Amino acid sequence: KKSEQELKDEEMELFTKYYMEWKGGRKSGNTSYMNIPRFYYRLPAEDEVLLQKLREESRAVFLQRKSRELLDNEELQNLWFLLDKHQTSPMIGEEAMINYENFLKVGERAGPKCKQFFTAKIFAKLLHNDPYGRISIMQFFNYVMRKG
User: Fold this and answer.
1) Domain extent for 103
2) What domain of life does the UniProt record list for this protein's source (predicted)?
3) 96 found inside a domain
4) Most buried residue, 65, 88, 125, 131, by CB count within 10 Å?
């Protein structure tokens, strides 16, 4: 029978052998995994005060940046005023409509925060079976309020 120390030594030897094979085998094969950016970082433990403070601060800065991107009440009112001013007739019932040309004019005047909403892709997304190729002003405004 082997002593306990001999068993531990043998176990460590096998572990080292298999670990080196595994590690060495990975390096010799496909190394594309090295180009994948790290996307998971563990949460800091309770005793890692500095890391916790850093996490809190970075989250606060992120939320401040996101809130600055949101449209405030005055900007929303201005957007509604511009959309209403540039509506394209005829109305469909009570629904005010806007064509692409006027849509782009409003986009130029609405301000930098609104610029992201005045794209051909968004116009096409909201375009339904209008014979004049227009979108509903109310649908567009609701879209901006949901996304912005």
Assistant:
1) 73-147
2) Eukaryota
3) yes
4) 88
105 located within any domain = yes
Residue 118 lies in a domain: yes
- Provide the 3-class DSSP secondary structure of residue 69: helix
For the stretch 35-79, pLDDT in tens is: 778 788 888 888 989 999 999 999 999 999 988 888 888 999 999
> Which tokens go with 7?
């068993």
CB neighbour list of residue 14: distance below 8 Å, 6 or more residues apart: none
The 8-class DSSP code of residue 137 comes to H
66 backbone dihedrals φ, ψ, rounded to 5°: -65, -40
The tokens 């950016």 sit on which residue?
37
What pTM, to 2 d.p., does this model score? 0.60
Q: Please report which residue ranges of the chain form alpha helices under DSSP H.
A: 4-28, 49-69, 73-85, 100-109, 120-126, 137-147
Which one-letter amino acid corresponds to residue 113?
K
Residue 25 lies in a domain: no
Task: Name the residue among 22, 125, 140, 16 with its Cα closest to residue 83.
Answer: 140
